[in-house]
Write a structure and sequence with these properties.
The complex is a heterodimer of chains A (252) and B (285). Chain A is of the alpha/beta class. Helix content of chain A is 36%, strand content 27%. In chain A, the strands form 2 sheets. In chain A, strands 6-7-8-3-9-10 form a 6-stranded mixed β-sheet, with helices on both faces. The longest helix of chain A is centred in the middle third of the chain and has 14 residues. Chain A is globular and about 55 Å long. Chain B has 2 domains: 42 residues; 237 residues, MetI-like fold (Orthogonal Bundle). The mean pLDDT of chain B is 89. Chain B has 285 residues and is mainly alpha-helical. The chains are: A alpha/beta (252), B mainly alpha (285). Chains A and B meet through helix 2 and helix 3 of A and helix 7 and helix 8 of B.
């Protein structure tokens, strides 16, 4: 394992929806420029974990949380929602596009962060679409409603939209759950290219995808981190019996 | 075979019954309109629409009343639209669920059930007497605005709530503030519903007599108003006056006045339909 600087660190993170505890004493470190895979069955707290990092959980009124999250050694409670979410972007499970044109979807982020000027915005849109491997497919029809794109294209559009606000971390919440294998491969390709500039966390139900894409991988179960290690090690020599059962498909 | 045949018959019977019920709802409206058009259209002329009433309102036109009603609609809209939409935005997007907001929501629902004469009395006490605005366009518009508010708030609330939650999540996840999210990701998509509700409540306000009775309406005032502190004639009140207070009023003049009022309300509803169709083209989800 490469010794590296932690960009995100959680300390005894506990998350609750009303009285239901979705996450128990999570202590985890995420390193700069790595792809961290997170696997685990449904209701294991994977999505809650992602949404705790950029405070999207707070949109749910019944949500509460104990413990701390540090982003570059700064407690995220001291960072405003707007700045935190600009720096930590998220890709949702199902492609969530706005019912406007392809261009306006990508330009939305720059717009809310006060970037004006047509040429500057269109430059951002182009480079974001290129980084998400979508530019060649849509460059002639940027005015087309984004909802007319295929599911895989929509998901890459979501990645482009996130890239357009220049985040430092990208969270993926089961990004390929509704996609065909070819679209999935394109998204995985994009993730490999994005590694140079971004730290990425991939939550997935598909253990094979975690094995293909991630460098380190964590196994969540019932809101607890059971095991985290090098992806190869986790899949070939899991230390915990439950991890072994899950990755070999004996439950979950 | 037998079962499906029986089901087919039952379905036909159900269709006939439902069709009859629908007809019962529509029939009175159609009959009223036919009656008014048939007996009132003859009295409508250029003179009727553009001239002031003469000779104890038995001759001349209803121009001041038409202008009065249009001014009252505009005044009502100026007060109720911003207040109603902003209240709805506050209730849906900003307010947390607590005792206070539940009280507001309950009040809004209950306000829409209050008889319009009560609004008229409230407007008279509050605006005409207490705030010393006198019987004026201002007092009348404010009274009608308060009466329209519950419907505008309720319709706007529903329109805002019908925007998918995911739009807000997308916007927040990109670092947008609450207001940016409302402004760019919620309002544009709820505008058709807000407009429909607003126009419906305004067209109801246009036809109301009780709220303007003590606050603005003039019995007979052939000149046009000079300022918002003037009284005006208004179509619904004029119709009431010529139907009950003027002896030997020709029936066709009453029906012609009613026809103009209905036409005005229809026109407003038409505008709302056109606007809604225009905005709906943008709705693609």
């Amino acid at each position: 394992m490469v010794a590296n600087e932690a960009i995100i660190k959680t300390v005894n993170l506990n998350c609750y929806y009303g009285s239901y505890q979705a996450m128990k004493d999570m202590n985890i470190e995420i390193y700069r420029n790595e792809i961290l895979g997170i696997i685990g069955p449904a209701n294991s707290g994977k999505t809650t974990f992602l949404r705790a990092l950029n405070r999207l959980n707070r949109l749910n009124v019944s949500y509460s949380q104990k413990g701390s999250i540090f982003f570059e050694n700064q407690n995220i409670e001291n960072i405003s929602d707007s700045v935190l979410r600009k720096r930590i972007g998220i890709i949702f499970a199902l492609p969530q596009v706005l019912p406007v044109s392809i261009y306006d979807n990508v330009a939305y982020g720059p717009k809310v962060h006060g970037i004006t000027g047509k040429s500057k915005v269109s430059q951002i849109v182009e480079s974001a679409l290129q980084s998400a491997y979508l530019w060649d497919e849509v460059k002639d029809r940027l005015d087309m409603p984004a909802l007319r794109l295929s599911g895989g294209q929509q998901q890459r559009l979501c990645i482009a939209r996130t890239l357009a606000v220049e985040p430092e971390i990208i969270l993926y919440d089961e990004p390929c759950s509704g996609l065909d294998p070819i679209s999935t491969a394109k998204i995985e390709d994009a993730m490999q290219q994005l590694k140079e500039k971004y730290t990425q966390i991939l939550v997935t139900n598909n253990t094979k995808q975690a094995a293909r894409v991630s460098e380190r991988c964590g196994f969540f179960l019932m809101g607890e981190l059971i095991e985290i290690s090098d992806t190869n090690a986790l899949f070939t020599y899991p230390k915990d019996k439950r991890t072994d059962d899950y990755v070999t498909g004996r439950f979950g | 075979m037998n079962i499906s045949k029986a089901a087919g018959i039952r379905q036909k019977v159900a269709f006939v019954i439902l069709g009859c019920i629908a007809l019962v709802v529509v029939l009175p409206i159609i009959l009223t309109i036919i009656y008014i058009v048939k007996n009132g259209a003859g009295a409508i002329s250029w003179e009727f629409i553009t001239e002031a009433p003469r000779k104890g309102m038995k001759e001349g036109g209803i121009f001041p009343a038409i202008i009065g009603t249009i001014l009252l609609i505009i005044g009502t809209m100026l007060f109720s639209l911003p207040l109603g939409i902003l209240s709805a935005i506050y209730l849906v997007e900003y307010a947390r669920e607590n005792f206070f907001t539940r009280l507001i929501k309950l009040s809004v629902v209950n306000l829409s059930g209050i008889p319009s004469i009560i609004y008229g009395l409230f407007g008279f006490t509050m605006f005409v007497l207490f705030l010393r605005l006198g019987t004026s366009i201002l007092s009348g518009s404010l009274t009608l605005a308060i009466m329209s508010l519950p419907v505008i708030i309720t319709a706007s609330k529903e329109a805002l709530e019908s925007v998918p939650r995911s739009f807000r999540e997308i916007s927040f996840s990109l670092g947008a503030t609450k207001w940016q999210t409302v402004r760019y990701c919620v309002l544009p998509y709820s505008l058709p519903g807000i407009l429909t509700g607003t126009v419906l409540s305004l067209s109801r306000a246009a036809g109301e007599t009780a709220p303007i009775l003590f606050t603005v309406a003039a019995f007979y005032l052939p000149r046009l108003p000079h300022s918002v502190f003037d009284q005006v004639m208004a179509l619904p009140y004029h119709l009431y006056v010529i139907s009950t207070q003027v002896p030997n009023m020709p029936a066709k003049l009453k029906l012609a006045t009613a026809l103009v009022l209905i036409a005005l309300v229809f026109l407003m509803n038409l505008v709302s339909i056109v606007l809604r169709a225009h905005f709906r083209k943008r709705k693609q989800w």
